[in-house]
From TrEMBL:
InterPro entries per the UniProt record, alphabetical: Aldolase_TIM, NanE, RibuloseP-bd_barrel
Keyword list, A-Z: Carbohydrate metabolism, Isomerase
EC number(s) per entry: 5.1.3.9
Name of the protein described by the UniProt record: N-acylglucosamine-6-phosphate 2-epimerase
Keyword Magnesium set for record: no
Family, per entry: Belongs to the NanE family.
GO molecular function: N-acylglucosamine-6-phosphate 2-epimerase activity
Family annotation (SUPFAM superfamilies): Ribulose-phoshate binding barrel
Role this protein plays: Converts N-acetylmannosamine-6-phosphate (ManNAc-6-P) to N-acetylglucosamine-6-phosphate (GlcNAc-6-P).
Amino acid sequence: MDNFSVSKALRVDQFTALKGGLVVSCQAPTGTAIDTPAFISAQAQTVVQAGAIGIRAQGIENVRAIKKLVDVPVIGLVKRYLDTSAVYITPLLDDVLELEQAGAEIVAIDATQRLRPNGVTFERFMEQIREKTDLAILADVDSIESALLAQSLGCDAIATTLSGYTEIAAPELPNLKLVAELVAKLKIPVVAEGGYHEREQVAQAFKVGA
């Protein structure tokens, strides 16, 4: 098996470990009293103790603090609200590399077809990532079209995070219809995310194949 195949297999393993379990997003509103690595990492530790099998967290220092307390996979991201681009979930290559250094096993990126800062296309962004790292990449999408492109470019899993948050309207949240469509059409894992607030909604997502 060549090096590419080995690295791809290792990335697949990251998502296989999450299949059928609950990944909890541990975040806090920016600038609030609880927006600290100490609080976010304690929150992550608490939900892992309660049965979560993975954590999604925003911010380099938050990811670093969480990795000191838990041994489950961490999906890291950086939110940057820039005047030059509508993309705010991990829009820069440096964000990806710093999240990897902080200990994130998986990095979530905006995988919509909107331009990143400096006019960088999603296709070019994935090229930049793969030139620097074999880290597992979770593609946050808004549509089946974005998901199919992300799969073709080598993303390792798809999340419905941005459904309803771009110019492409969603019928309702959570968008279970999109989850089911992605499961039917993709060959990579699908993570149901966005608008899940009730136990029944989570159960429905698992039922359609997330």
